[in-house]
Each structure stands twice: as C-alpha cells, then as structure tokens.
Amino acid sequence: MFIDLIIILTGVRRIGKTSLLLVALHESKIPYIILDARKLRENYALKDLYSLLSEALSSSLDKLKDVLRKIRGISIMGNYVEISWRGRSYVSLADLFDHLNEKRIIIAIDEAQRLRGPLSKEIKNAIAHAYDYDRNLTFILTGSEIGLLHDFLDVEDNSSPLYSRYCYEIKLERFKESLSKEFLKRGFEEFKLKVDDAVVSEIVKTFDGIPGWLTLAGNYYLARRSVEQVKEMSIRLAVNEIENLIESKRKISEITSRRYREALKCISEGANSWSKLHECVSEKEGTTISYSVLDNILRQLENMSIISSYEFLDPVYKEA
Ligand SMILES: Nc1ncnc2c1ncn2[C@@H]1O[C@H](COP(=O)(O)OP(=O)(O)O)[C@@H](O)[C@H]1O
Ligand SMILES: [Mg+2]
To answer: Where would I find the ATPase domain in this sequence (predicted)?
Structure first.
C-alpha cells in the first residue's frame, strides 16, 4: 500500500475523496499528516501555509514527536507544534520533508489545487526534492477541481519542478444506479424507516450517484421532509456554492463575474455547443462577446470540474 510517492485522488465535489482518504490513512497504520488546503485564502502567504503545517503536525504529534524534536526551528509547546517561517531558525519545506523522511510518513493535502498561487513553485520544488531524495515520504493530493490540480502539478511541462515525476491517479466515479438505490435503502433501514421504492428512485434520479448528495438527501428525508423539499434544500445549497464562485470572479471584474453567471445559465438551458453558447451569452448581454473571453470562461469552468463537454457534471448544479 502507498508505494507510489505521489498519489492523486480526484473526483467531483461530494464524490467521497476526503472520506476515502481518511479511511485509507486510518487503515494504513502509517503515521500521517493532513493539510486541508481549503483553509488557505487566495494568494495566501508563507505564514498561512506554515500555520496549516503547524496544525497538521500538532494533530499527529504523538506519532511524530521523536522526529520533530530534532528539528531546529520547530518547538513543541504543549500540544502545539510551532514552526519558524522566517529568520535565523527558518525551516524550509524541503528541510522539513528531509527530517520527516526519518520515518515512513504520509503527507496528505486535501483540495491541493488550492495551493496554487505565488508559492506554487516553492511548494512544488519541495515536493520534487522529496520525490527525488525522501523515499520514505508519500504524498497524497486530492482535488475536486481536477483541471486546476493538474495545472498546479504540471508534470508534463518541462519547465515545471515536478516535470516527469510519476503521479498515480485514482479517479473516484459516482455510484451506479443500483448501488445508489441500495445505499439509500440500507441507510433508511438503519433508521427503521420504511420508504417506497418510488421515493428511492426519485432521489437517485435527482442526485445521480454522488454519495455526498445521496447522504444529504437521505438525512433530509429522514428529518420528515418530502422529496420536493429535499430537492429544494439541496439546490439551495448548490446555489450558494455557485454564487460564491460567481462572486469570486468579481475580483477580476464585474463584467467577468456576470459572464460566468450567463455562461452557466446558458449551459443549463441546453447551450451544448460552442456556437450555441456564444449566441446565448451574446443574446443575454446584448454585446458581441469576444471569442477568447468566452473560451477562457468555458475552460475555467471545465478546470473547476463544473462543466465537461457543455454539460454539468453535477445534476444539482445544473438545477441550481
Ligand atoms: N463510500 C462512501 N460510502 C458512504 N458514504 C460516503 C462515501 N463516500 C462519501 N460518503 C458521504 O458523502 C459525503 C461527502 O463525501 P466527501 O468525502 O466529503 O466528498 P469529497 O471530499 O469528494 O467532496 C461524506 O460526508 C459521506 O457522508
Ligand atoms: Mg473533501
């Protein structure tokens, strides 16, 4: 288990990456640390990255104390691991990895595409260094925004630090229809709730085989909600996520943000080709939209794993 030095675990939101990661780490019995990169804001600084590392090392302190004690620039204060990110006792990432390599350790980074930003190069250099020298370390990187994760790792670009390093990719796929039904039925059985097959079918039809949605829908239904209410509540959740995405584009410009909204709307209404999409967005806006601008938006939506071939990857997002 975990022979490869870099493992990437990809799949759309709610497909079960974090769950699988946690189960696998737990069962492997190998000491590990987990960094949740979602906690990093855009354009995060070195200090933020080191806070995340401090937290991760602190959570696994029991298993790593012996190694951490020997590192200059790291102090253990009670249950908390402090790391110097500046000054004379500064510990570089590569140094840290070299020290951790004393032991077999797994370093997991959840939603690793969030590491993109000004520190990308430095992080990738450190991982490349560890790949070459620290054979005891295994990195597991997960990502919901699959294109962005591949962009970040960039193993095919010969100017990238990780160029030609081998990454073993595990792509999580949704449950098949029969498994989704079985999954819901078993869940309801656990709560001794008798549920009509028609209800189960309706839920599976709406949420496809995405376990995160199925679990949520099952729980809403258990809370005595009707299937209609379950759908509404889930769609509302997805609307929030999409609103956040559109809002985040406002940093680029008001127009860009609006165009993301229009492009998403057009695709949800069936604009399933380049010409239809261009026509639809131009029509909504009453502007002759630049091809390259729209192409860029479409590519970003694909990289974020929201759209693929002019289709939503998540049916709830489409509704939203
Ligand atoms: N294999 C599975 N079996 C049962 N439930 C699962 C499974 N995978 C995921 N889930 C449920 O779906 C939810 C979302 O999964 P999560 O691992 O957070 O997805 P991701 O990290 O891919 O966004 C979990 O909280 C869990 O309830
Ligand atoms: Mg997750």
So the answer is: 5-214
Range(s) of the chain covered by CATH 3.40.50.300: 6-171
Q: Is the confidence at residue 2, as pLDDT, over 70?
A: no
H or E stretch covering 101: none
Q: Which CATH number fits domain 249-320: 1.10.620, 1.20.120, 1.10.10, 3.40.1130?
A: 1.10.10
Residue 49 DSSP code:
H
In the chain, list all ranges with CATH 1.10.10.
249-320
Mean pLDDT of 274-288: 96
pLDDT in tens, 164-212: 889 999 999 999 999 999 999 999 999 999 999 999 999 999 999 999 9
Tokens of 99: 């020290």
- Contact criterion met (CB below 8 Å) for 207 and 234: yes
Any idea which architecture 6-171 has in CATH?
Answer: 3-Layer(aba) Sandwich (3.40)
For 100-139, the pLDDT digits (tens) are 999 999 999 999 999 999 999 999 999 999 999 999 999 9
User: Can you tell me which atom of ligand 1 is nearest the CA of 216?
Assistant: 27
Q: Which atom of ligand 1 is nearest to the CA of 15?
A: 22
**Phi then psi dihedrals of residue 189, to 5 deg:** -60, -40
Q: How many CB atoms lie within 10 A of CB 257?
A: 16
